[in-house]
Amino acid sequence: MTDLPLAATAITTHFFTAADGARLAWHETGPESGTARPLVLIHGLFSSANVNWIKYGHARLLAEAGFRVIMPDLRAHGDSAAPHDPAAYPSDVLADDAVALIRHLGLTDYDLGGYSLGGRTVMRMMIRGAVSPRRAMVLGMGLAGMLDTGHRAAFFREVLSHLGTHPQGSEAWRAEAFFKTTGGDATALIGLLGSFVDSHEAEIKAIPYPTAIICGTEDQDNGSAEALARLLPQGRYIPMPGNHMNAVAKPEMGRAMRDFLLA
User: Fold this and answer.
1) Which residue blocks in the chain are alpha helix, DSSP H?
2) Residue-wise pLDDT tens digits, 88-102
3) Number of domains making up the chain
4) Does any domain span residue 1?
5) pTM for this model (two decimals)
């Protein structure tokens, strides 16, 4: 691990314009040297780059390992635009946005990772042949979450459409509580849910890149992570403690990412 000065792990925020005119943010940290290896990390639904990658120290850990850590805020999240026009959420728009950022930055040799919805987005980018990472990481995602996006989309649509009515302690109540902590825009997020695209086993089997499936041992929100890893030609299942909500707060997640990328 490289012992970097504090200035080298400071967070900077930048913006670019997507093809449809949406103003999208990304955050960056890492060595100031131009030789640092780029690593693009995509956060999950209702979350942000700050919540998934920065707040609990994962970005800093990866920066200290020598990576240039690039963390977009998805559209309808964080510092990025949250349009209410349904036309702003065509199929696979998140994959399109992430590919646009990679091209905007001129990246040609890089690694790629994502948590939950971000992990599905990484998979969609690879399935479509739009990216060619050296290594990929899919966190908090299982096979069912790739093959049937409608089930989870319907759950979150119910959460967002009936805010304030969910029984205390229920899964919907917990999802709403998280949504409120991140200051989400319900109208924009409902639009985004319609952009999800199901994948097929044959498409997953064709992904040629070494891919770590990192998931909490108590996390079944998106189905079996082990089954997803088995389907990938170069898949590797890496278990870690936690469930879908608390795994991102655990230091084991950052260490698992770092160790996979440096192996």
Assistant:
1) 49, 58-64, 93-104, 117-127, 143-147, 149-161, 171-181, 186-193, 201-205, 225-231, 251-262
2) 999 999 999 999 999
3) 1
4) no
5) 0.95
